[in-house]
Amino acid sequence: MKTLLVALFLMLTFQPAQASVRLSPIYANEASNWPLETFAANGLFRQIARYQQGHPQAIVLNGGEYTLAQLARKLDSRALSRTASGWTLHYPLVIGPSARLTLSASTLFIEGRHGGCLINRGELLIENSTLSSNGDRSSGFIHGWGGSTTRIQNSTLTDLGRADYRANGLSLARHRYQPGAAPAQLFVTDSRFSNFYRGLDAEAGSRVSISGLSLSGSREQGVVLHNSPARIERLQVSDSTGHGLRAGGSGAFFITDSQLQRNGGSGLLLEAHTGEIHMTRVDSHNNREYGAQIKSQRGQQVTRLEALSLNGNGSDGLRLDGGMHVTLNKADISHNQRYAISIEAEDGRQITGNMAELHLHRNRLAALQTGGEGTLVLKGVSLRHDSNQGKYLAGNLADQEADLLPRLLRGQEVAISFTGALPTIPLVSLR
Q1: Cβ neighbours around 192 below 10 Å, total
Q2: 245 closest CA partner among 309, 281, 212, 294
Q3: pLDDT at 15
Q4: What torsion, rounded to 10 degrees, do the Cα atoms 203, 191, 161, 76 define?
Q5: How far apart are CA 87 and CA 184, in angstroms?
Q6: Poorest-confidence range of 4-18, 29-43, 112-126, 411-425?
Q7: CA distance linking residue 262 with residue 267, whole number of Å
Q8: 99, burial (CB in 10 Å: exposed 0-12, middle 13-18, buried 19+)
């Protein structure tokens, strides 16, 4: 009897996982099929119906580690096929929480017109590889749900994404059925993205780390972060139709050694952002709107900007709106079509700042424009004139420009106050 129990135990312990790769029907019922429901509602069913026979299906990895070659041995070529130019994914592919898919030195085309896409709930590794899709309204996409990890290293991704919700290209989010799930994590190293609908879209419950990414030609915005802590270095975003990088929410935001150029909106927009901000060695130039804009009620939360280059933008170099305290050290803000620095404090709020080592040269309207209430302490400012208003300083300054300029031009520390309050005139005595 004891021998029989031991044998049974060994059978149960070492029995291989059943159906680790399977085709699974897709339903619109959220409770039974939530990882795909969002996309099915956005039209994935219609795309699948044009290609698949019968009820729409997805490839699901329930466990184990796979390469594309290993997957192909378990699937029909109508789901995953290979040609002389590489692999083609025709079906939606879901990587389960205990599964891993590795693309190493691979070429993969995601056939969006057939419903192809990658949905990650486990681990997806893309290294030294090339991924592409249709580059139009039917494009495939990559999405990571809560608890997933996506790593992209030394790879090129092109033509992904479309306008549908969470199918914008490379996106991350925590589903409402995952309130306690770990964050969806993304790590990008030395890679290139081009012609995405939206280069990167991270929602609440996500974490992003970028160390070397060139992102060009996004059909909408380049990078969008909401309530997603991000550490970014060596990011280049160029030629997006909208903003180069847009972030909001309470997630801490660190960006360094990065370039944002020729974007159709602002190079960088931080809107309704209340987390820490650290920007160091950021070059934002030749964007259609602002070089950088911070539009938030931040109070005394850390807002530290250092070694910025904001040049040749279609509006202001640096725009501050709302309420906040800003530390700006070392910046070249020149040749912008409006103001070098423009400040508009919200009613009942103040914008204050300490700014040092600034080059504010040849901005079209003025070097500094103020509105609302606040105080700036400036030191070590270099000014060059190119204003068609004939002013370096404009707005509701408490002091006259003529009183402030001599000290500014000598590099002295100058406190510049501005207020939206109406001046009060003392009553004349009747005596």
Answers
A1: 17
A2: 294
A3: 36
A4: -110
A5: 26
A6: 4-18
A7: 8
A8: buried
Q: Which pair of tokens denotes residue 71?
A: 């997957």
**Residue 307 half-sphere exposure, CB side, CA atoms within 13 Å?**
9
**Nearest Cα to 369, choosing from 307, 309, 308, 320?**
320
The token pair at 68 is 């594309």
pLDDT tens track for 203-252: 999 999 999 999 999 999 999 999 999 999 999 999 999 999 999 999 99
pTM of the model as a whole: 0.91
Structure tokens at 28: 């619109």
Residue type at 203 in one-letter notation: E
Average pLDDT estimate for 74-90: 96
pLDDT at 385: 81
What type of residue sits at position 309? S
State residue 77's pLDDT score.
95
Question: In sequence order, what are the residues at sequence separation of 6 or more whose Cβ sits closer than 8 angstroms to the Cβ of residue 333?
Answer: 291, 308, 309, 310, 311, 317, 318, 340, 341, 358, 359, 360, 363
